[in-house]
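> forwarded from #structure-qc
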């Protein structure tokens, strides 16, 4: 039949439900007892300054996925998501002034935006927490309007800006000036320009 021309395993539509169930089960099975997920491939070294922010960001993304796919296994998804939420909303798991905090805060906003849309109970508290996290992003934005991943750059800035937009659409208080600065910085970005920012 010849050599494969792509890395994706072809699947039929009939297999869809089974694939989703297996994916959700895999995610739940790999959750740590503290509610987080580790991501050992993020950096080449176990940097104690960066990894807390990475684990918080990954926990937020995983919790958002469990919320979206709750119908697959409501009881198991709810239990895992509740554990994840305790972890990702614990400020002790965010290492401030170490760049990757923008991912921790941005993806926490993404998770909470989905929660605000799908879970009506406690929505006011959710929106309040989102507004607080958005304020933390305002504090970590550099003068040129960017956010930093090792250095201020457009790829993490665009990710954060998208998460802020989701939070704003959900009803959280988001500083419009912060978003305007970020959008202007992205529009103005030219390469190769020194990435280190102001």
């Amino acid at each position: 039949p010849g050599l494969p021309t792509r890395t994706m395993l072809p699947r039929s539509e009939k297999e869809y439900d089974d694939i989703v169930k297996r994916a959700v089960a895999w995610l739940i099975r790999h959750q740590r007892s503290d509610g987080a997920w580790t991501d050992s491939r993020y950096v080449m070294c176990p940097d104690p300054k960066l990894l807390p922010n990475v684990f918080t960001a990954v926990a937020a993304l995983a919790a958002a996925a469990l919320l979206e796919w709750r119908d697959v296994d409501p009881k198991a998804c709810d239990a895992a998501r509740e554990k994840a939420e305790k972890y990702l909303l614990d400020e002790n798991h965010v290492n401030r002034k170490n760049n990757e905090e923008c991912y921790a805060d941005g993806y926490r906003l993404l998770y909470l935006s989905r929660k605000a849309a799908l879970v009506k109970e406690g929505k006011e508290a959710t929106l309040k927490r989102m507004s607080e996290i958005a304020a933390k992003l305002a504090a970590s934005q550099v003068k040129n309007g960017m956010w930093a991943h090792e250095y201020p750059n457009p790829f993490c800035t665009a990710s954060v800006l998208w998460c802020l937009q989701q939070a704003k659409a959900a009803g959280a208080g988001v500083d419009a000036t912060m978003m305007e600065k970020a959008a202007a910085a992205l529009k103005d970005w030219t390469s190769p320009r020194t990435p280190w920012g102001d």
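QC bot note: Strands lie at 147-149, 151-153. The chain is about 55% helix and 5% strand.
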